[in-house]
Fold this sequence. Notes:
- The structure is a single chain.
- The chain has 11 helices and 14 strands.
- By secondary structure, the protein is of the alpha/beta class.
- Helix 2 (45-54) packs parallel to helix 8, helix 3 (73-81) packs parallel to helix 5 and helix 6 crosses helix 7 (205-214).
- The longest helix is centred in the N-terminal third of the chain and has 20 residues, at 109-128.
- It starts with 5 loop residues before the first strand and ends in a 10-residue tail after the last strand.
- The relative contact order is 0.12.
Amino acid sequence: MTERTIQLIATAPMGLEAIVARELKELGYEDTQVENGRVTFTGVPADICRTNIWLRTADRVLVKMGEFEATTFDELFEGTKALDWPDWIPGNGEFPVEGRSHKSQLSSVPACQKIVKKAIVEKMKERYSTEWFPEDGARFVIEVTMLNDRALLTLDTTGPGLHKRGYRKLVTEAPLKETMAAAILQLSRWGPHRPLYDPFCGSGTFLVEAAMIGWNVAPGLRRSFNSEHWPLVPEELWAQAREEAFDAVKDDIPLDIAGSDIDPSAIEVAEAAVKRAGFAKEIKLRVLPVAKAQPQGSYGVIVTNPPYGERLLDEKEAEKAVKQLGFNYLMLQNWSLFAISSSKNFEQHFTRNADKRRKLYNGRIECQLYQYMGPLPPRNKE
């Protein structure tokens, strides 16, 4: 039973689908199919554990239960009822239904949710020979997504999104999601053989994510997931996946990771996160204005999320900070710099056009990743 083949979906923020697909390939999943906001791949129940524990840039991992045309509620009901819900959901399982609809005749999301719930209950009645389900057991969150008159039915194996690694209890203003930070680090070509610095480190997300990449620490190692309580994904599969992840940690690799911020309370939050993540000795933090931030070493990478003045009062300060960052960068001969910003005027204040730009979404905020490419380290340094 545990070796049944299943279709899985790793959901991804807009613009990061290719990075999620690359991660999946590195984990050994070859048959990836990339679509807007998601990457579909084939696996077995053990892969639910592996991908939840290892994926750094995906939002969540879903089981693809089925996909079919549905222009009427009858079609939605019959298509849903035909799927193997009782194979996954036990008689006492809690199964709330979430939904969304876009460019479809079935545009009422509450009505779609109601129909899907009713169809699943009918299917469950057949298997369990009962009229009533207590829903007091493990949680199986179902989502119906209507897009261009096609219904996609999924089960959420993750629970709280994969960006919730467990090390960040407090957040500063304008937090960057951990998944986004990991994606930017992957785009930056940074590796543990190079220095890394963040002069606007805020709550330290870039620094912790870099240390986890540097030591090959699986991001989901210290958290729990909805599917840990599912009969089809037994406890021993989770224990095995965690054991493999623990064995893969390379904590003997020296790291040169540092950050600073002008705000002492942000550094306090960063220190707490760094400590909780287990990198108190590896990551150096200081309270410093950007003008005094002096990264050390050669062929390093600055990865940062500079302040952006939402209020008029902050705007001049934010512009000044980016201008200072640009001045600092002039002094760093062989460094690369990657800055994510929602400001349309970043390059103007930085006083240099980026070598590359990439549109990304931090939550719902449209941003640009400004990429200034320094030389890669000589071969013998890699």
